[in-house]
Each structure stands twice: as structure tokens, then as C-alpha cells.
Amino acid sequence: MQSESEEWKGPADEKAKFAWKRLECNFPHGDFEELKAFYETWAQHYDNDVLAIGYGAPKAITEEALIVCDEEAKKSWKVLDLGSGTGMVGKELHDNGFRGPMTALDYSNAMLDKAMQLPGVFSSKILHCFTPESSLPVSESTYDMVVCAGGFGPDTLVVNCIPDVFRVLKPGGYFINTMRTSDFMVTFKENFEMKIDDLIKAGIAERIAIKPYYQYQWDTDKMPGTMGVYRKAKV
After folding, report:
1. What Pfam families does the record point to (predicted)?
2. What count of other Cβ atoms lies within 10 Å of the Cβ of residue 135?
């Protein structure tokens, strides 16, 4: 945790400064129960906090979704917002014309409650703690697209969850995922892509694109992230 005496190197304005501290300094690492409790409490501040520091994942994911999905498909595609939080990605998709059934999945009930309050965005929710030992409670080949904004990481969704994401995708369906570019994420990101490589070799997945984007941005600094677009093999 950063001490008060350390030089502040994040957002310049006070609102963004406190939002960043809530995110970076109070975020628990390594203890699942503490992390879950943190999200239950953070739900009331989450949207304001991430907007204050220029959270870019919802827009970045939506831009990629619009590339792979034509106007007709936007009306019918079934979408899973994996680790939906308060539903910011789902709202961005909805605001850009996605009208097919959209499901919010998260392990925080407070976050899901916020998501389900968004008018017309989500048709259903799933409260579930997704781990390699507790797979997604969804049938094979259910979704046309799975989106995940920052859900994969050392303290949250681990790389061994990836095969189950492809299990619930329809053949030819897309998985769009964002991850932060931080020092503690370097090894995790390498392992993430290695797991994708395994699925590619097995004929299950295709890697469509890896792109940089701004995870957070503000007046004085920017934090890059990585956008991955993958597709389930059609056969």
C-alpha cells in the first residue's frame, strides 16, 4: 500500500486521486475472501471511481465487437459479460446497438445488482465464482460472444479458466478480453497467451488480434492495457 508520504504519480485532480487510491492502494491481493468483500463494498463507488480515472476498457471492447459483428448480428447475438461488475461493458455495447440477449456474470452480488439496474441492458444474471474447479454454469456452445474487461489476473480469473470460456462459445464465436499492463501482470499475460496457444494447437481457438489500448488515462499519465480478440474454431 502506498504511504501518504510517497510522491503522488497518478491523477492530478483530487477526485481522481482518491479514486485511484481506492483502486490501487486498497485492492487486496492474494486473499479471495478479502477481494470479494472489497468488491461488495466498492460497488457503491465503482462507476464514479473508474470514470474519474478515465477507464477505457468498455469503449475498447465495444470498438472490437463492432468490427466482428455486423448490423444484423447485433440484433440477435447472445453475449456473456464475464466479470461484468456494474455492467459498464454491457451498457457500452447496448448504447452501440447490441440488442441480443446479454447475460451479466459476476461473483459480487452488489456489483450484479448495479448491473441489473441498467435499463434494457441485461436480460439475465449469473452469480457465480468462476474457477477451474467451478466451471461456468452454462451449456456448451451457448454464446456468440464473451467479453471480459480486466477479469483475468493473478487474483481473479486464472489462465486455466480459459478453456471453459471457449466451451460456452458457439463455433465461430468471439472472445474479447482486456488486461492491464502492469509489472505484476507480465508473467500472467505470458501464461495467458501460452494457454491460448495450446487451444490453437488443439484446433479449438484462433487468435485474431492483440492490440494496445489505454486502460486508464488522465491529464498527467496514462496506463496502457492489452486487448485480445480470439475466435472459437468453426469446426
Report:
1. Methyltransf_25
2. 15
Sign (positive or negative) of CA dihedral 170, 172, 68, 62:
positive
**Cβ neighbours of 45 (radius 10 Å):** 14
> Where along the chain do the CATH 3.40.50.150 domains lie?
57-232
What's the alpha-carbon Rg for the chain, to the nearest Å? Answer: 17
Burial status of residue 233 (CB atoms within 10 A of its CB: 0-12, 13-18, 19 or more): middle
Q: Which fold has domain 57-232?
A: Rossmann fold (3.40.50)
pTM for this entry? 0.89
Question: What whole-number distance in Å separates Cα of residue 38 and Cα of residue 27?
Answer: 7
Hey, what's the cell of 127? 452469480
Sequential DSSP letters for 161-191: GHHHHHHHEEEEEEEEEEEE--GGGHHHHHH
Q: How far is it, in rounded angstroms, from Cα 180 to Cα 228?
A: 11
